[in-house]
Design brief:
about 450 residues, mainly alpha, Proton glutamate symport protein, globular, binds aspartic acid
Length: about 450
């Protein structure tokens, strides 16, 4: 069985085992059994394996972003293409997010998930005030690159790596030596990602089994319309918006792209973090979608940090839902405000689980909706977070392909080859991943 199939199977098995345990706990068949299972299996084995898996994914993020961005920007440095690449990427990220919120708002207004809903929540939500915009901008620039890396400040690492790569390409022979060192380093770090991929079935299984054994399904029933509205828009965004965008901008087949995204989705779904999924996204975008490292090294880490269409969709639907529950009418101006703030909020959302809900406070307060309303949707947020994270990483991949194609930094043969770098049992078959695809 290919690794992709094993990861997907582990995902299904995790959901089934977790839900089975959850049902068992409810029936309470053998008194005392729940305690034993919770201590040794759910809180023991599953928890430990899941946490080690996420830790090892996160471990790779900083080295991978640094080396691939240095390699990418050093190979582009002399060609003056960095500016246009950055410009196109930012534009596409912003436009897709704005489309995502707009569709979410339209769907929510049409469906009316909060109409007639009478919810009182016993969970409270305390909003933290967002930092001033000037601080956000200034904080993109690191004062100390080592600290930026130690603290995993992604935008700061990106700025440092871009500058470093640019300097390498302009530093003559010493620059060339450093560049070749970084290329070797990249091959080694990518190999670490390969190794981790082979452990993924266990990690994915443990994370999902634990989560589903504790997840109450009743919360979903109370909020069914809200839940399914968000899901429907997420699906629409992937199947319609991204597919049209890819077809329109590149002429490439969305079906091929989406089928190659499956292992990335499994990681995104089980970790609910675009940050932790980043190593796998980058590996897939480069080795299976054919995007040259010079583009992917920039677009993927940047996308994981600032491009969150799935999050923006949740925020759009949630805003309308909470307004409806509170019986508030939103004006056209308020809707436009929501599009702008949700786009900005998605930029400011950290690529870890659950942060989209925190930045939703910013959107709600902009249009005068009580932020305590967030408490109403907390119960179903984790499951939505898993799905929206998968959408977030898909957006990063689609934009990477579009930008790479327009810049001629794209290998169509790799894209079209359905089996390119498929993660079969023989890990040596991945040896190609060490070198970026030729353009
Ligand atoms: N979990 C999401 C991500 O990492 C962010 C969020 O919406 O909370 O992409």
């Amino acid at each position: 069985m290919s690794l992709t199939s094993r990861i997907l199977l582990a995902m299904v098995a995790g959901v089934l085992v977790g839900s089975g345990l959850n049902a068992l706990f409810h029936i309470d068949l053998v008194p005392g059994l729940e305690g034993v299972i919770n201590t040794y299996l759910v809180g023991g084995l599953f928890d430990v394996v899941g946490r080690i898996f996420v830790a090892s994914l996160k471990l790779l993020v900083v080295p991978l972003v640094l080396v691939s961005l240095v390699c990418g920007s050093s190979s582009l440095g002399n060609s003056a293409r960095m500016g246009p690449i950055a410009g196109k990427t930012m534009l596409l990220y912003l436009v897709t997010t704005a489309i995502a919120v707009t569709v979410a708002l339209i769907a929510a207004v049409l469906i009316g998930p909060g109409e007639g809903v009478n919810l009182v929540s016993n969970v409270s939500f305390q909003a933290t005030p967002p930092p001033p915009l000037t601080d956000v901008l200034v904080n993109i620039f690191p004062t100390n690159p080592v600290r930026a890396m130690a603290e995993g400040k992604m935008l700061q690492i990106i700025v440092f790596a871009l500058l470093f790569g640019y300097a390498i390409s302009h530093a003559g022979e010493p620059g060339q030596r450093i560049a070749s060192f970084f290329r070797d380093l990249e091959a080694v770090v990518m190999k670490m990602v390969d190794v981790l991929m082979h452990l993924a079935p266990y990690g994915v299984f443990a994370l999902l089994a634990k989560l589903f054994s504790t997840m109450g399904i009743s919360a979903i029933l109370d909020l069914a319309t809200y839940f399914f509205t968000v899901l429907a828009v997420l699906l629409f965004h992937v199947l319609v918006t991204y597919s049209l965008l890819l077809k329109g901008l590149t002429g490439l087949s969305p079906r091929i792209l989406l089928s190659k995204m499956r292992p990335v989705w499994a990681f995104a779904f089980s970790t609910a973090s675009s940050g932790a999924t980043l190593p796998i996204t980058l590996r897939t975008v480069e080795n299976r979608l054919g995007v040259h490292n010079s583009v992917a090294g920039f677009t993927v880490p940047l996308g994981a940090t600032i491009n969150m269409d799935g999050t923006a969709i949740m925020q759009g639907v949630a805003t309308v839902f909470i307004a409806q529950v509170y019986g508030m009418d939103l004006s056209m101006g308020a809707y436009i405000m929501v599009v702008i703030t949700a786009t900005l909020a998605s930029i400011g959302t950290a690529a870890v689980p659950g942060v989209g809900l925190i930045t939703l406070a910013m959107v709600l307060s902009q249009v005068g909706i009580p932020v305590e309303g967030i408490a109403l949707i907390i119960g179903v947020d984790r499951l939505l977070d898993m799905v929206r994270t998968a959408v977030n990483v898909t957006g990063d991949s689609v934009v990477s392909v579009a930008v790479a194609r327009s810049e001629n930094q794209f290998d169509e043969e790799v894209f079209l080859d359905e089996r390119a770098n498929q993660d079969d049992d023989d890990s040596d078959s991945n040896a190609v991943s060490a070198s970026p695809p030729t353009v």
